[in-house]
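Here is one chain, start to finish.
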Amino acid sequence: VVIEIGTQRGTSALYFASLVAPYGVLVITLDIKLPPDSILEEFKKTGVLFVHGDATTPDIARQVKALVAGRKCLVIDDGSHRRSDVLNAFSHYKECVPLGGYFVIEDGMTNWILHNRDFDALGAVDEVIRTHVVSWKRCEEYDNFLFFSMYQGILQKIQ
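Its structure:
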């Protein structure tokens, strides 16, 4: 299962669905705002499940975990990018990621470069690594792509 936090216009969810369709992988995308009706129709055609609500809340996390039904997940957090939201999402969805799997936190560097001080996804990544040092690692080998939206935000479950 691919869990995408932060649907926005829905293009990433549709892209993920096109990549994983041959493998029978489910794509679940969550957002507090509804995407346009045309995108919701595309979701139906491609099998993308849209969950309307705040991914950082226990109720929505329970709903998503019920849809996941114990399957292995790749989690991509492209939500608000606020430190507290990133940390809340990580706490709710980290258990969905299997050993060796990934939890991706997007746009930390992008927001840092643009001086968006209300956002601190990179600080959240640092805190996750600091507080989960034995179970998660930052995959620095992908950081060669400096302007990659996931720069310093690809985390791998190691224990």
